[in-house]
Write a structure and sequence with these properties.
- The chain is of the alpha/beta class.
- The chain is built from 14 helices and 14 strands.
- The radius of gyration is 26 Å and the shape is elongated.
- Bound molecules: arginine.
- Arginine binds next to helix 4, strand 6 and strand 7.
Length: about 400
């Protein structure tokens, strides 16, 4: 009888390389390696593909999903201004659902019974993989070698690899664990595990030190949006993907887009995380500025709450869930008139909105001005305040009556 098959989410790194051999040895399965190009900066993916075959995968696939990632996934994050705990633009949390989608597709294509990932038992990514897979095909089974095996230290893993002829990294391993894609980079481990220690400058690759002298002058950028998505930079039409790259460069050059935070993982652990997200933060800043101009007050305020919930769901691995889908519907309907231009100024680690305009602007000069053009009915304010404040007034009278005046 032929063996059962497993599709392994393969990165080319030591963990998932050892996993190929371990799955064959311990689980007696045929391994199909799948590497997904989500715009990570690392190595040549053809080399990664060959490496999996060299270790003994029966099939090794690389899929370039960058366009789909931008259009179907990042677009939703931007419309949602998604920031977990009001800070983190969900870099890793965004790439997992699209990787999951392609893992499940590959499993169906190759009639695999299992999907495997190289996550540890301590992070969010295992949750994102497994819940996502269950949502797309509840009959697929999961294998999680790194969570199961007894290779406690990296040395043990290296020994395991060397004994079996698995190529091991020849350069000294970076002390950091890095995960990146075209929405940004996440950096953890090493000295960063002490939340009091300032991150060393060598962890950054996308952003310049804002103290540097390469940018002593402010620089401006004008982003144009249509229905919530960027379509042009400085008047030049370009794809969303290209705009992300250009914003990464420009904001990165000015040292904008570093985050140093303590974050609450779903599994209950607080961790110290560093992110480099110049493009993502720039685009969210601009998108929010345009929404401030175009969204009616109640809608804007309500959307702020929805945004928080959306980010939390996606962080917690619920991309493919009915609530997240329903919230997408809400968010999409808010974006119809989010069209216009935003002008940003970058300088010494900052990115600030300095101008915004839209054919759908709700800003009414005649209502807002203190000049002669003022059409706002000042007298109407009195009646409004009387009624708005009426419950407070009633409450205060009652307090006086019972002798508790002045106490809250
Ligand atoms: N803490 C972040 C998250 O859960 C980043 C995880 C990064 N993963 C990694 N292997 N370095 O989304």
């Amino acid at each position: 009888m032929s063996k059962e098959k497993v599709v392994l989410a393969y990165s080319g790194g030591l963990d998932t390389s050892v996993a190929i051999q371990w799955l064959k040895e311990e689980k007696n399965v045929d391994v199909i390696a799948l590497a997904v190009d989500v715009g990570q900066e690392r190595q040549d993916l053809e080399v990664v593909r060959q490496k999996a075959l060299g270790i003994g995968a029966i099939e090794s696939i690389v899929v370039d999903v960058r366009e789909e990632y931008v259009e179907e996934f990042i677009a939703k994050a931007l419309k949602a201004n998604a920031l977990y705990e009001n800070k983190y633009p969900l870099v890793s949390a965004m790439s997992r659902p699209i990787i999951v989608k392609h893992l499940v597709e590959a499993a169906h294509k190759h009639q695999a019974k299992y999907i495997a990932h190289g996550c540890t038992g301590k992070g969010n990514d295992q949750v994102r993989f497994e819940v996502g897979i269950a949502a797309l095909d509840p009959d697929l089974e999961i294998m999680a070698p790194v969570r199961e095996w007894d290779l406690k230290t990296r040395e043990q893993e290296m020994d395991y690899a060397l004994e079996r002829g698995i190529p091991v990294p020849t350069t000294k391993k970076s002390p950091y664990s890095i995960d990146d894609n075209l929405w940004g980079r996440a950096i953890e481990c090493g000295v960063l595990e002490d939340p009091w220690v300032e991150p060393p400058s060598d962890i950054y690759t996308l952003t310049a030190d804002a103290r540097g002298h390469q940018c002593d002058e402010p620089e401006y950028a004008e982003l144009s949006f249509e229905q919530g998505l960027p379509v042009a930079l400085d008047g030049e039409k370009m794809s969303f993907h290209e705009i992300i790259n250009r914003m990464n460069e420009l904001a990165g050059k000015h040292g904008f887009g570093r985050i140093d935070m303590i974050e609450n993982r779903l599994i209950g652990v607080k961790s110290r995380e560093i992110y480099e997200v110049p493009g993502a933060l720039t685009l969210i800043t601009a998108h929010k500025a345009l929404e401030d101009l175009c969204l009616e007050r109640d809608l804007l305020h309500y959307k702020l709450q929805i945004e928080q919930k959306w980010a939390e769901l996606v962080y917690n691995g619920m991309w493919y869930s009915p609530l997240k889908e329903a919230l997408d519907g809400f968010i999409e309907s808010t974006q119809q008139l989010v069209t216009g231009d935003v002008r940003l100024r970058f300088f010494k680690g900052s990115c600030v909105t300095v101008g915004r305009r839209s054919p759908y602007s709700l800003y009414d000069y005649n209502l807002a001005t203190y000049d002669a053009a003022d059409t706002f009915d000042h007298k109407a304010a009195k009646g409004f305040i009387d009624l708005h404040g009426l419950p407070t007034k009633v409450w205060a009278r009652q307090r006086r009556k019972v002798g508790k005046e002045g106490e809250v």
